[in-house]
């Protein structure tokens, strides 16, 4: 599947089919469909009867295998979500998503055997940032000099976090970001409610988890932020904790809110919460900047622990107290 | 044969083809020529400078059928097989995926057998920094004294991770980064042979973009050829690298100097539309700020043929030097926080807004100014502090004892107030008269004489306590701040206190002050309770609603035990929850502290030295950070 904003990129990539590198690194903003682009490319490379524009036919045996996720010459390297198998008390576990070295060793073995269908073999690594250091290093040799007809596709939204030794072995390809109109039109065609607001909240990235329950919670959270009161803050911390959400989710909401608050008070610009412009601008008049900056850095400090097993309620309460001080 | 990327296709096959690294090549050639060969080499250097390449050429030199030579023939069976990567006596081991001791054992077990075809069995262990500790140690003996037919070549980007015991057994060569000129020259050679049209400035851009690594350069070149659909043009390369055109940065900094927020954010949006990486934008910005700072401090250090000479000096005139330093800091930190922001654009915006927030025009509060005024005041305090200590202590004792004397040595008190804590300048209002301080309740009530020193000491502790609490307290503003005062730090040795059992005289405040330090966990209850009634050995305490949790049976029992120890007999005790409005010990302490601080402020404002500082250096006094200091 190819998103409308990737058509130009596809045309360019397909013109490079005569000069395939050993590894492509696709970069671009999160939530803009890089993975789908890479999958599309992988399917096209494996297809038995590619179309004129090198796209996959969707009819042949290879495409059908690919569609059912069982193509023998295709491997996907992505972090295992360990929460799913843990049915105990229905608690979703909060764990760091990482690609481990065992998975990379399997890939190395796969690439050293000959192909099933006498054609290309493709390894898709997504997202490449989740390779842990041992795994990333283990990938280096095979990434640089893979056996014939093995192609690596790496997908990363923050390439500066990759090892320089990995980046140096790949041909980087920055994928285009969708324009606002295109993203909006696509969202509307998907029948998503309040497309405009959702798009703004996700910073212009059209692909996000659309979860009405979460949206409702976010609205509640933001409403509490808009009226900074001690009781409201404590209730929010409790409410969020009850939902068993990882800390990353409320942190993200809060970080965006602070960004808009600071943006409004100094630059009259907001990005994530256009529907709350009135509330934000009246808050912006009351906000004390040094405290606002302090609160923002507190949020930033916690971001690396977004999926950690920290006590969400405690952390959130502390942050919201900081937030209250902005208006004290 | 399918297409091979340039970096692989152009991997040098002879020492003569190598770019840079003359120092390594010369040492190796001489060693090969005179056959003075070490048995283990360690090649280090950043990515793509030729570690693996040199290791392979060395393997060829050792095994070439023409004899050990610095110029392997490249045509004999051994050379061709090594180039194709299937020579039996060359074992290239990927240490990053075979990290364990078992992998290494397997390798070393085979080392004792003679080579099948060639002269030497060559082990190239690449990415050796990823070996486990036990794997390294398992190697040590073989690495030190290998059989005569074995050569080890280790290669790594990260020699710090290799144990010293391994380092000391190897001959180490560190490969240098290549200069942009060397890279550009080599790229030109590659393109000529490949028959691709190019523009020379594009190559120097690529040379700089590769930051010293030839493989990066060749990967970028591949990308550039694809991007330019067959040609390498300057414009295309610039767009592809996302190189930040300096004009954007100048626009950003000018908007910043004018404190024009909307323009600043608009410029940032333009950057995003152009697809320029925010990460590189911030790092380039830091470089530019560094140049501006140079222009301000050592103008002659910027050479006049710098392309942006005029623009740099124009900006240098617009911004205050200390602001430039601050912006530089924010840019550097902002780069680190970029990955932590909701998205990169937000992170970049936030860094810009942060710069703007500390712009002189936006300082709604004088807080940042404190940083500047701090130094002279602190120095003054340090000098005056010591001599003032004794006087201040004497004064405190007097004050708590109830015989307040007018402030005799304002200077000493000011210094005392400053000595221990952050000096805190703030705008100084006209000196106000000494505030009327109500008589101490503790002193007004009949007070056992021996309790006085302990209260004096308590005053000291309270001040300390306040200083400690200031750092990280995240109190909700609605709760009174005495409510959660940290008791752990208050500590007075029990031995110093009078131990004789006394009869309770109905003065709860004095009692708590006296035995408080010995109470342990129930101190919180005692501190926040009011004595409601007291009749013949039965105490009734009242705590406010917000401390309901303190009224539990557990706490009551503990308090009863403590009181029994103090008085020598058991007391009836009950605790109710109600608002009495009367003053609790905690409230009293908070009030005392507040008064002390108030007084310190007045003294500080009237101090001739401070006034002189304000007059002559335009200093400001931050009244809300003043704290009475103690030893």
Automatic annotation (TrEMBL), chain A:
This is DNA polymerase III subunit delta. InterPro entries: DNA_pol_HolB, DNA_Rep/Repair_Clamp_Loader, P-loop_NTPase. GO terms for molecular function: 3'-5' exonuclease activity; DNA-directed DNA polymerase activity. NCBIfam families: holB, PRK08699.1. Signal peptide: none annotated. It comes from Craterilacuibacter sinensis. GO terms for cellular component: DNA polymerase III complex. Gene3D superfamilies: P-loop containing nucleotide triphosphate hydrolases. It holds the Pfam family DNA_pol3_delta2. GO terms for biological process: DNA-templated DNA replication.
UniProtKB/TrEMBL annotation, chain B:
Residues 406-423 have a biased composition (Low complexity). Its EC number is 2.7.7.7. One of its GO terms (cellular component) is DNA polymerase III complex. Transmembrane segments: none annotated. GO terms for molecular function: ATP binding; DNA binding; DNA-directed DNA polymerase activity; metal ion binding. It catalyses: DNA(n) + a 2'-deoxyribonucleoside 5'-triphosphate = DNA(n+1) + diphosphate. Residues 394-440, 456-476 are annotated as: Disordered. Keywords: ATP-binding, DNA replication, DNA-directed DNA polymerase, Metal-binding, Nucleotide-binding, Nucleotidyltransferase, Transferase, Zinc. One of its GO terms (biological process) is DNA-templated DNA replication. DNA polymerase III contains a core (composed of alpha, epsilon and theta chains) that associates with a tau subunit. This core dimerizes to form the POLIII' complex. PolIII' associates with the gamma complex (composed of gamma, delta, delta', psi and chi chains) and with the beta chain to form the complete DNA polymerase III complex. NCBIfam families: dnaX_nterm (TIGR02397), PRK05563.1 (NF004046), PRK07994.1 (NF005942). DNA polymerase III is a complex, multichain enzyme responsible for most of the replicative synthesis in bacteria. This DNA polymerase also exhibits 3' to 5' exonuclease activity. PANTHER family: PROTEIN STICHEL-LIKE 2, REPLICATION FACTOR C / DNA POLYMERASE III GAMMA-TAU SUBUNIT. Belongs to the DnaX/STICHEL family. This is DNA polymerase III subunit gamma/tau. It comes from Craterilacuibacter sinensis. The lineage of its organism: Bacteria, Pseudomonadati, Pseudomonadota, Betaproteobacteria, Neisseriales. The gene is dnaX.
């Amino acid at each position: 599947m190819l998103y409308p904003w990737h058509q130009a990129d596809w045309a360019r990539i397909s013109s490079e089919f005569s000069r395939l590198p050993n590894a492509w690194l696709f970069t671009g903003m999160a939530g803009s469909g890089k993975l789908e682009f890479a999958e599309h490319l992988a399917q096209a490379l494996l297809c038995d009867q590619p179309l004129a524009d090198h796209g996959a036919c969707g009819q042949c045996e290879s495409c059908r295998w690919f569609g059912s996720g069982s193509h023998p010459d295709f491997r996907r390297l992505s972090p295992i979500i360990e929460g799913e198998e843990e049915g105990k008390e229905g608690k979703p576990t909060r764990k760091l998503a990482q690609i481990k070295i065992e998975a990379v060793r399997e890939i190395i073995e796969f690439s050293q055997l000959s192909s099933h269908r006498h054609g290309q073999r493709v390894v898709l690594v997504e997202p490449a940032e989740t390779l842990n250091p041992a795994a990333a290093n283990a990938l280096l040799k095979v990434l640089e000099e893979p056996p014939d007809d093995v192609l690596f596709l790496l997908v990363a939204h923050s390439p500066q976090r990759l090892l320089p030794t990995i980046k140096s072995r790949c041909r980087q390809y920055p994928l285009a970001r969708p324009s606002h109109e295109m993203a909006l039109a696509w969202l509307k065609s998907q029948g998503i409610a309040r497309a405009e607001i959702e798009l703004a909240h996700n910073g212009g990235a059209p692909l996000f988890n659309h979860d009405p329950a979460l949206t409702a919670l976010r609205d509640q959270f933001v409403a509490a932020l808009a009226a900074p009161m001690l009781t409201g803050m404590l209730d929010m911390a409790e409410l969020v904790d009850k939902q068993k959400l990882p800390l990353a989710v409320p942190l993200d909401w809060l970080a965006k809110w602070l960004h808009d608050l600071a943006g409004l008070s100094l630059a009259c610009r907001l990005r994530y919460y256009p529907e709350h412009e009135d509330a934000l601008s009246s808050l912006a008049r009351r906000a004390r900047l040094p405290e606002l900056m302090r609160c923002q850095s507190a949020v930033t400090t916690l971001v690396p622990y977004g999926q950690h097993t920290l006590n969400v309620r405690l952390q959130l309460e502390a942050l919201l107290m900081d937030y209250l001080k902005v208006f004290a | 044969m399918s297409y091979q990327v340039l970096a692989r296709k152009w991997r040098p096959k002879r020492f003569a083809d190598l770019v840079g690294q003359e120092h390594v090549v010369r040492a190796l050639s001489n060693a090969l020529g005179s056959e003075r060969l070490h048995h283990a080499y360690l090649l280090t250097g950043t990515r793509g400078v030729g570690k693996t390449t040199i290791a392979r050429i060395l393997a060829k030199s050792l095994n070439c059928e023409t004899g050990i030579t610095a110029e392997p023939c490249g045509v004999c069976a051994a050379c061709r097989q090594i180039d194709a990567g299937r020579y039996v006596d060359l074992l290239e081991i990927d240490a990053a995926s075979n990290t364990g001791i078992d992998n290494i054992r397997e390798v070393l077990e085979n080392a004792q057998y003679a080579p099948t075809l060639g002269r030497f069995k060559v082990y190239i262990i690449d990415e050796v920094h990823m070996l486990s500790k036990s794997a390294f140690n398992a190697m040590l003996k073989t690495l030190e004294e290998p059989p005569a037919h074995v050569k080890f070549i280790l290669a790594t980007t990260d020699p710090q991770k290799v144990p010293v015991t391994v380092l000391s057994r190897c001959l180490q060569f560190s490969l240098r980064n290549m200069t942009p000129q060397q890279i550009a020259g080599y790229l030109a050679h590659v393109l000529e042979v490949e028959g691709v049209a190019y523009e020379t400035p594009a190559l120097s851009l690529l040379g700089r973009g590769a930051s010293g690594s030839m493989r990066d350069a060749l990967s970028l070149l591949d990308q550039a050829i694809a991007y330019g659909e067959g040609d390498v043009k300057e414009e295309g390369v610039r767009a592809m690298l996302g190189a930040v055109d300096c004009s954007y940065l100048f626009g950003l900094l000018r908007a910043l100097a004018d404190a024009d927020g909307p323009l600043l954010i608009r410029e940032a949006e333009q950057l995003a539309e152009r697809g320029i990486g925010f990460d590189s934008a911030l790092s380039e910005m830091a470089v530019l700020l560094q140049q501006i700072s140079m222009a301000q401090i050592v103008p002659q250090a910027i050479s006049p043929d710098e392309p942006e000479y005029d623009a740099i000096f124009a900006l240098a005139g617009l911004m205050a030097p200390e602001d430039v330093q601050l912006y530089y800091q924010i840019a550097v930190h902002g780069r680190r926080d970029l990955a932590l922001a909701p998205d990169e654009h937000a992170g970049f915006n936030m860094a810009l807004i942060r710069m703007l927030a500390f712009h002189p025009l936006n300082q709604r509060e004088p807080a940042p100014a404190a940083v500047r005024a701090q130094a002279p005041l602190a120095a003054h305090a340090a000098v005056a502090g010591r001599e003032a200590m004794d006087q201040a202590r004497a004064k405190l004792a007097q004050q708590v004892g109830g015989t307040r004397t007018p402030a005799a040595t304002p200077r000493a008190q000011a210094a005392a107030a400053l000595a221990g804590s952050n000096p805190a300048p703030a705008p100084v209002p006209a000196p106000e008269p000494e505030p009327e301080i109500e008589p101490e309740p503790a002193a007004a009530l009949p007070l056992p004489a021996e309790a006085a020193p302990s209260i004096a000491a308590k005053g000291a502790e309270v001040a300390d306590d306040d200083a400690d609490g200031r750092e990280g307290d995240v109190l909700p503003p609605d709760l009174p701040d005495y409510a959660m005062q940290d008791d752990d730090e208050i500590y007075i040795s029990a031995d110093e206190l009078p131990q004789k059992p006394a009869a309770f005289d109905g003065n709860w405040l004095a009692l708590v002050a006296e035995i408080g330090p010995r109470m342990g966990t129930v101190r919180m209850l005692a501190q926040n309770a009011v004595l409601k009634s007291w009749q013949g050995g039965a105490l009734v305490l009242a705590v406010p609603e917000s401390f309901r949790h303190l009224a539990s049976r557990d706490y009551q029992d503990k308090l009863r035990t403590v009181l029994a120890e103090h008085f020598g007999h058991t007391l009836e005790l009950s605790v109710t929850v109600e608002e009495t409005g009367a003053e609790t010990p905690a409230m009293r302490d908070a009030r005392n502290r507040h008064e002390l601080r108030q007084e310190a402020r007045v003294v500080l404002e009237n101090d001739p030295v401070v006034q002189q500082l304000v007059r002559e250096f335009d200093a400001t006094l931050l009244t809300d950070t003043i704290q009475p200091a103690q030893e």
